[in-house]
Amino acid sequence: MTTTYPSGPTSAPTSGPLQATTATFIGMPKFPKAAKEALANTQQRRNLAHATGVIRAKRAGVVAELPQWEDLRLAGAAAKDETMTHLAAYLEQLEANLVRNGAQVHWARDAAEACQIVVDIAAAKGVDEVVKVKSMATQEIELNEALEAAGIHAWETDLAELIVQLGHDRPSHILVPAIHRNRSEIREIFRREMHLVGRPAPDDLTDEPRRLAEAARLHLREKFLRAKVAVSGANFAIADTGTLVVVESEGNGRMCLTLPETLISVVGIEKVLPTWQDLGTFMQLLPRSSTGERMNPYTSMWTGVHPGDGPQEVHVVLIDNGRSHVLADPLGRQALRCIRCSACLNVCPVYERAGGHAYGSVYPGPIGAVLNPQLRGTASDVDKSLPFASTLCGACFEACPVRIDIPSLLVHLRAQVVDESGRKSAEAKAMKAMAWMMGDYRRLEKAQKAATLGGRLLKGRTIHTMPGPFAPWTSARDVPSPPTSSFRDWWKARNTDSTTEDQR
Amino acid sequence: MTTTSLPAADSAARTAEQLRTAEQIRNDAARAAIFGRVAAAVTDISAPLGARGDAPRIEQPSPGRAQTVELFIENVVDYRATVVPIAPGKVGSAIAKALKAATSVVVPSGLDPAWTAGLPDGIRIVSDDHLDNAALDGVAAVVTAATVGVATTGTIVLDHGPDQGRRALSLVPDLHVCVVRASQVVHDVPEAVARLRSTVDQGASAGMPRPLTWISGPSATSDIELERVEGVHGPRTLHVILVQD
C-alpha cells in the first residue's frame, strides 16, 4: 500500500486532534495545589531527594566517560528530527518491513482505538490474562483498565510496576515508578496483596530488597510460564529493518517478549528511528541518561516473527493519540524526540520536591510539563498550570540526551496559556495598567513618587504578603521594599551637583 | 477443516470473516487518517527525506587489541559477573568448573560437542528438543556461545544462532555460562551495531533476520530504594568464559 504526501513547503502546518484526558486524570487540580499536598508527604520527599541525587551522580559519572557526549546528543536530536519531519515516509517503511517479516501492523488514532485493538486480539486468543512489560504508551492509553473491563487481567511484571499495581497506586517516576514507597511499605503491600492474585509472599518475608525481589521473582515466574499473550511497548522501532527494541534491567521484559505465543507491542508513532545504524548512537545515549549505567542489563531486539524462537504471532499497534497535534507546532515538535529516559526528572529542582503525581499525567517532570499541555491542550486546570511548574533553570535541557530545549518550550507554552486566557487574568490587568503608566513620563514620575514614599514609610522592611490580587504572587515570594528615591530623582540631583565637580 | 462443516461452525466462520473485514476497514481508515495528519503537520519542512545523510558513527577508537579485551573484562566484572580468561582448548574444563554446582544444563543444538564432553556424570545434559517452558524452568544452567562483545560497556550480544539457541534457553535457567572469543570483542557500541547489521538484514545472503539479546551483567533491579539487587527474573549468575584466541 502506498500513500502520497506533500513534499516541500506548501502551507502552514495543520495539527491533528488532541489527546483526550484519560479517566484517571480528569479533574486533576492545578500543579501548585497538587504540589502543595505532595510537599506535605515527608516520606516521599526523602525518597525522592535520595533517588534523584543518587541517579544524578551515577549519570554524571558515566556521561563524563564519553568525550564525545555532545556529538552523541547532536546525532540523537538529528536522527529524531529526521524521523519527525518525514514521519509518513518512515512509518511506511517501518510498516513494510514489519509485514515482510511476519508481523501484523495495526493503526490507532487514539487511546480508545488502541485499547480496543489489544482487547480484541487478546479476546480472540480466549485468554483471561496477559503479562506486561513496563510501557509508557500502554499507561498513557490506560490499557490495563480497558483489559480489566473486558475481563482480562493485565499483570505488570516490572518490579516497581508490580509494587504500584499491587498497591492500587499510581507511578511517580518514569524509570523507578515506586520511588515514593520505602521497603517496609513494599513488604506490607506484598504480604497483603500477592496472595489475592497468585503465589503468596513467603511467610518470613523481610523488608530486605534482596528478599523482596526474590518474592517478586517467585510470584511472577508462574505467570511468565503459563501466559499465552504478552503486551509490551518499544523503546525504538527501526524503519529500515522493521526491528523493535526493548531496553530493560530485570529480565521480565525478556520473559514477556520470549515465552508467550502471542506478542502485542503498543508503540507511539514517534518511536521510529530512521536506520539500524542510529542504534549506535541511542544505545549509548539511553542507558547512560536513564539509569546512569554504561549499559542496561538486558536489551531485546526482534524483527517480526522468528520461526522456532519466541512468539509466533507478533502484533504491532502504532498509535497517534495526540502526537500529530504536537508535530504541527514547529517549535513544540522537538518534544517528540523524547526517549523517556527521565534524566530531566532527576535534575529538576521542582520535580525533586513535588514528585511525579502532581503533574497529573503518566509523563511527569520537565518533559511532562511540556508534553502534556501539547498532547492534551491547555483547557484543563492541570495542563494550564504545567508550563509554569518550573523555575526555568535550564538543568533539564543540559541533561536531555536528545537536546529538547524544555525551557524555551515552557516559555512558548506560557505565552500560549496567557494568550488563551484573554484579558481577564489579574496578570493581564496588571500588565495593562503598567503599560498605561509607563506610556507617559509624567505618569511614571507620579507613580515613582508614590512608591518612594512607601519605601520611606517601610524603612527597608521586606513585604511578605500583599493584599487582593497580589496575594498569590507573594504566597511564594517576598517583595523588596521600594527604594527611598527613584533613579530619575537621583540623576536630577547628581546633575545639579556635578556641574561644579566636573569643572574642577 | 472438513468440507461439510456444521451450520453453526459455518456461521461462526462467516462472523469471524465479517469481523476481519470490519477490522480491515477500520485499520485502513485509521492508517489513512494518521498518514494524512502527520503529512499535514510538517508542511513547513523543506528539507528532503534523508537530508541529514547517513547516521554518524560516534565512537571511541580502540587503543589496541589487548587494551580492548582488558577493558571488556573490567567492565563485565564491574556488573558483578564472573569472567574467566582461558587459552583455546581449555573451554571444556572451564565449562565443567563453572557448572560444578549445577545439577542439569541445557545446551543449544549447535554448541561444539567437545565443550560439554568432559562434564562430570552428576550433571544431566538436556538437549533443546522442543522443551516447553515448564521443562526449561526445571533446568539449572545453560551454556551458550556469543556473537559480539563490547568493551566500553561490558556487553555480550547473542544472535541466537545454532551455538546460542533460541532466546528462552539463555533466559529461564538461573546460571548462564557464556563463552566469548576475544576476537569477537569490539571496542565500542557503534562497531557492534555495524557488525550486527547482517544478522537482522533480510538480504539474499543473510537469510532470515535473527533476534538479538544484549546482556550486560546478570539481571538486576534498583526499584526498591535504589538499592541494587542482582537477580530478578533473568539468570541470577552470569559466568563468562573468555577464550584468548
TrEMBL record, chain A:
Domain of life: Bacteria
A Pfam family the protein falls into: LUD_dom
Annotated 4Fe-4S ferredoxin-type domain residues: 335-404
Keywords: 4Fe-4S, Electron transport, Iron, Iron-sulfur, Metal-binding, Repeat, Transport
InterPro entries: 4Fe4S_Fe-S-bd, 4Fe4S_Fe_S_CS, FTHF_cligase-like_sf, Helical_ferredxn, LUD_dom, LutB/LldF, LutB_C, NagB/RpiA_transferase-like
Domain Lactate utilization protein B C-terminal: 419-495
Residue ranges of the region described as Disordered: 468-504
Biological process annotations from GO: lactate metabolic process
Keyword check for Amino-acid biosynthesis: no
Molecular functions per Gene Ontology: 4 iron, 4 sulfur cluster binding; metal ion binding
Feature: compositional bias, Basic and acidic residues: 489-504
Residues of the LUD domain: 91-319
Cross-referenced Gene3D superfamilies: Alpha-helical ferredoxin, NagB/RpiA/CoA transferase-like
Keyword Transport: yes
Protein name: Iron-sulfur cluster-binding protein
Organism: Candidatus Phosphoribacter hodrii
TrEMBL record, chain B:
Gene3D superfamilies cross-referenced by the UniProt entry: NagB/RpiA/CoA transferase-like (3.40.50.10420)
InterPro entries cross-referenced by the UniProt entry: FTHF_cligase-like_sf, LUD_dom, NagB/RpiA_transferase-like
SUPFAM superfamilies, A to Z: NagB/RpiA/CoA transferase-like
Origin superkingdom: Bacteria
Domain called LUD: residue spans: 140-243
Protein known as: LUD domain-containing protein
